[in-house]
Amino acid sequence: MRSRSKLLILAALAGAGPGWADEGKWTPQQVLELDARWLKQQGLELPVSRLWDPKRGTGLLAAAVAVPGCSAAFVSASGLVLTNHHCLFSLIQEHSTPQRDLITNGFIANSSGEELPGKTVRVTVPRRFTDVTKEIESAVPAGSADLARSKAIEAKQKELVAACEKTPGNRCSVGVFDGGLQYVLIENLELSDIRLVYAPPRAIGEFGGEIDNFRWPRHVGDFSMARAYKDGKPYTPEFFFPISRGGVKPGDFVMLMGYPGRTFRSLTSGEMANERDFRFELNREIYGEWIRLLEQTTKGSAEGAIAVAATLKSLNNSHTGAEGQLAGLARGSLIEKQKANDDAVMAWAAGKPAWAKALDAKKELDRVAEERRKMGVHDYLLTSVNVGSLALRDAAILVRLAAERQKPDAERDPGFQIRDLQRLQAALERDQKSFFAPSDEALLASWIARARKEGIAAARAANASELLRATKVTNAAERSKMFEETLQQLRARQDPMLEMAFVLDVELREWKARADARDGAVARLRPEWRKAVIAHAGKPVAPDANSTLRVSFAHVQGYAPRDGVQYKPLTTLAGMIQKHTGEEPFALPGFVVDAARKTDANRIPINFLADADTTGGNSGSPVVNGRGELVGLNFDRVWENVANDFGYAPDVARNISVDVRFLIWMLDDVQHADHILRELGVKR
Ligand code: ASP
Fold first, then answer.
1. What is the structure's pLDDT at 539?
2. CA 259 – ligand 1 centroid, Å
3. How far apart are CA 20 and CA 611, in angstroms?
4. Which atom of ligand 1 is nearest to the CA of 618?
5. What is the pLDDT of residue 418?
6. How much is the pLDDT for 186?
7. 84 lines ligand 1 (CB under 6 A)
8. Is pTM, for the whole model, over 0.85?
9. Is 258 in the pocket of ligand 1 (CB under 6 A)?
């Protein structure tokens, strides 16, 4: 099996076009199967075994770590972690006040004593990947109905995770690849004491704001740093990325390692249409409204603006992203193309007994997708409770927690087991920093109005301002008491927000049963269908992103966004100064402009393009050269490439990185942070 897939990977890569761009967010296991000669030709100077040694469970890839929602890199022997400014934004916001506004001014810790801890930031370091597909499959009793299948899979996953977490410091998960084609037990070391070391002023970390987001040409210093501690001391990683002083130039080979979140390439065209209609269309509409509400309700309030800053930033990013997905889906006719491919696979498989099951699976997948449409908006609104009003979300969590606590640990919902309680408590405490009553009321009222239209019972008689006036859920001290309370105690409070959450919990459980049954069906059907699709493609296909560690091999290069236009792959500080109008989001602090004037700004590269295969979650991914030295930090994709989540287009497949030469300039010439530069090995 091993050598066969290796041959296939070789064959596929040999067919790569002259533009280099290669589809594939490869898993560490797949990387080891790639042809070493091909990798060398591309520009990899290290032996592949330096990237990952499965026996020791380490390698350079272990320096590519995960932070919540993002990727990051160890860059020093004392646990210094480099990631994007937008990835540590909530940690920056957590410590900001109108008097000490770290969001606006940035932050530098001059000693370890000044570093700022984060309640909810964690770093996970990969340790081991074990294929557990057989164990999972054999845990499902023959002839199980779909809901029972999904429950059996979940129970086995919990069992594997519990065994894995017996090792001290471990945080484990079972990665599901392409809906069940493969299951991998992932063993990580978790570091939960993470402290902010450096953040640039927002005007640098977010230069260009939403106007430039997902766009090229770009000029943004989207980087920040934290330190990981273990047992109260700086963590010593076995591997970290040394900073390259040489930088990159057009045509250079780069490798990107990180944790891409979620893509949809393995879905059928019908399922893709559901993602368009019930994820991205609704994100555009509803997040658009919530953004307006947050802006209106915080106007003129420094306190309000800081409280909602992280929520607003993430809604903005998802909203712009949704617009990019929708534009790209339409422009590239991606769903129509997938339909044509689905049809071609079916025509190829027709009449071949070996693929009869695959054809049946496709029909059923279509039926499951059709079924989902009926409840699409309704179910979106139920799950959006996680995103909107904090009061409603916290009430929903408290009610669910009290109910799950009554069960034996192994039977509790994922997310509410003993292993989750500490982080849940920290998240609920942390919410206080983001709570601003007028904004929360507006979001709650919006949700209630929409939910009522969809017939969601919890919204029927609800009134946002009355609920918020009467509830104690928004009081930090009361909320922390509620965290320990039983269902009966919560009921006895007669708190209207909790009462609403009790009704909502019934509906959320019904939704969960629907979603689980669907997942059970998909686990049964998708592997059959994908086997046919992959056989028809005749080449290895990297699985869809699922927040697990992946590697993408790429080259620095520009692209043509449309006829008659060619984009260069590198921008410079000079371009940033050109964009500086003094008006937000193009308003640089005076000291940055002064420092830029003292240098040849054309010689300081700031951002660069490469043809890596990335998505959301890849933010903060280390971008390294063929020797494993850090040349950049991924933070975005270009507009024409946002819909690559649905299909790969080599001519526009470009990711955007911060060039480390800008990072060095910023820390050196602008902020004189010599102690950080020394730690990075850039200065003596
Ligand atoms: N900006 C994205 C992120 O936050 C990266 C991307 O979408 O390419 O992960």
1. 82
2. 11
3. 8
4. 9
5. 98
6. 98
7. no
8. yes
9. no
Compute, in angstroms, the gap from residue 611 CA to the centroid of ligand 1.
15
Contact 542, 534 (CB under 8 A): no
Give me 655's structure tokens: 């990711």
- Alpha-carbon distance of 527 to 149, in angstroms, equals 14
- What residues does each domain of the chain span? 2-122+192-264+543-560+570-679, 128-186, 269-524
Q: What stretches in the chain show pLDDT beneath 50?
A: 1-20
| pLDDT value of position 5 | 47
Buried b (16+ CB within 10 A) or exposed e, 117-146: bbbbbbbbbbbbbbebeebbeebbeeebeb
Distance 210 CA to ligand 1 centre (A): 13
pLDDT value at residue 22: 79
Contact 210, 320 (CB under 8 A): yes
Q: Which one-letter DSSP state was computed for residue 26?
A: B
* Predicted local confidence at residue 18, as pLDDT: 35
| Å from CA of 84 to ligand 1 middle | 10
> For ligand 1, is residue 318 a contact (CB within 6 Å)?
no
Point out the ligand 1 atom lying closest to the alpha carbon of residue 614: 8
φ, ψ of residue 570 to 5 degrees: the values are: -130, 140
Angle at 553 between CA 549 and CA 558, to 5 degrees: 125
Distances (CA, A) of 390 to 305, 385, 608: 16, 8, 37
The response to whether residue 637 sits with its C-beta less than 6 Å from ligand 1 reads yes
> For atom 7 of ligand 1, which residue has the closest CA?
616
Q: What is the distance between the alpha carbons of residues 180 and 365, in angstroms, rounded to a whole number?
A: 14
- 398: tokens are 């408290």
- Angle, alpha carbons 650-211-447 (nearest 5°): 100
3-state secondary structure of 375: coil
Is the CB–ligand 1 distance for residue 644 below 6 Å? Answer: no
Between vectors from CA 23 to CA 20 and to CA 26, what angle results, nearest 5°?
115
* Alpha helix stretches (DSSP H) within 43-189: 48-51, 89-94, 102-105, 133-138, 146-164
Q: Three-class SS of residue 523?
A: helix
Per DSSP bridges, beta strands 655-659 and 605-610 are antiparallel
Give yes or no for residue 218 CB within 6 A of ligand 1. no
Question: Which ligand 1 atom lies nearest to the CA of residue 87?
Answer: 4
Q: Which ligand 1 atom is nearest residue 261's CA?
A: 9
Nearest to 653 by CA among 568, 571, 566, 560: 560
Structure confidence at residue 34 (pLDDT): 83
pLDDT for the residue 12: 47
Longest dimension (CA), the chain: 73
Q: How far apart are CA 637 and CA 428, in angstroms?
A: 32
Cβ of 614 closer than 6 Å to ligand 1, yes or no, is: yes
Over its C-alpha atoms, the chain yields an Rg (Å, rounded) of 25
How many other C-beta atoms can be found within 10 angstroms of the C-beta atom of residue 249? 11
Dihedrals φ, ψ of 358, to 5°?
-65, -40
Give, using CA atoms, the residue closest to atom 1 of ligand 1: 636
CATH code of the domain made up of 2-122+192-264+543-560+570-679: 2.40.10.120
- Active-site amino acid positions: 86, 222, 619
DSSP secondary structure, 214-282, as one string: T-SS------EEEEEEETTEE---S--PPBPSS---TT-EEEEEE------TTS-HHHHHHHIIIIIHH
Q: Is residue 483 packed enough to be buried (19+ CB in 10 Å), middle (13-18) or exposed (0-12)? A: middle
Task: Kindly state the tokens that stand for 267.
Answer: 């879905």
Q: What's the one-letter identity of residue 403?
A: A
